[in-house]
Automatic annotation (TrEMBL):
Annotated ranges, domain CN hydrolase: 4-260
One Pfam family named in its UniProt record: CN_hydrolase
Name under which the protein is recorded: Carbon-nitrogen hydrolase family protein
Keywords: Hydrolase
Organism the protein comes from: Nocardia jiangsuensis
InterPro entries tied to this protein: Aliph_Amidase/BUP, C-N_Hydrolase, C-N_Hydrolase_sf
Lineage: superkingdom: Bacteria
UniProt-recorded Gene Ontology molecular function terms: hydrolase activity
PANTHER family: CARBON-NITROGEN FAMILY, PUTATIVE (AFU_ORTHOLOGUE AFUA_5G02350)-RELATED, NITRILASE C965.09-RELATED
Amino acid sequence: MNDTTISVAAAEFGRDLETCYRTITELARTATERGSDLLVLPEACLGGYLPSLGGGDESREARERRLRSLPPALELDGPELRRVAEIAGDLVITLGFCEADGDARYNAAVTLHGDGVLGSYRKVHQPLGENLCYSAGSEYRAFDTPIGRMGMQICYDKAFPEAARALALDGAEIVTSLSAWPTSRTATVERLEDDRWLHRFDIFDRARAVENQLVWVASNQAGTFGSLRFVCSAKIVGPGGEILATTGVHPGLATATVDVADALERARGGGMYNLRDRRPELYHSVVREHGVTGRTAVHV
């Protein structure tokens, strides 16, 4: 048996970096006390997310206000992530941040530990005007870590089965899905448990795990930021779609211990191995264009 203990956070992160570091330090300490090998933090946890989501019906004033309140853009090899690596030590940590690459900004994620960066990712799928603030990433790639082969996604990516499948086909055994997933903008409810975007979030997490027969770890922001209220619901999902641990609709840290190799073998060895049984020669229509006009990112 080769168990891996995973912790995943639903936690609040804003613009103040020192507060972010304190929150990361506390979550890392708790995860370590629980014997965790991996800690998954939310999207945009170094400097917070966008204060609002806009798009086609956004007024000029609203757009300009949003562009004036962006998170700090950090370099992948900069001192901010080195500080997180120092906090991590032997713990593997996945977290989200705004990455600077020249004049371009990316909504990005990184997996690291005390020896440095193990893998990085730039968000591919951009919802609700996010392309006005960030450039889009262009690839899904798994990478090796001390706890096995991993892949990363960010938020809206989980709504696209092709994205998770690409990581599974690249050998990912664990996929971390980092989010700043808010409540519905058009059908508000008093109780988070009744929110329809929360229901989508949970369905996507379980579906992506079971259809690829891998371990799926979904973090999320908590609390509020600007006009957004986040649904929490951080969770660890096994390769059969079973929820192994969750924070529910509350901030917190969910932890589960999994023998990843054994769990994948049991899911894939029962006669139905989804990756093996694919018929890609029949799937051509999946990648055809469907009349969607491309969008051009604005670099700020």
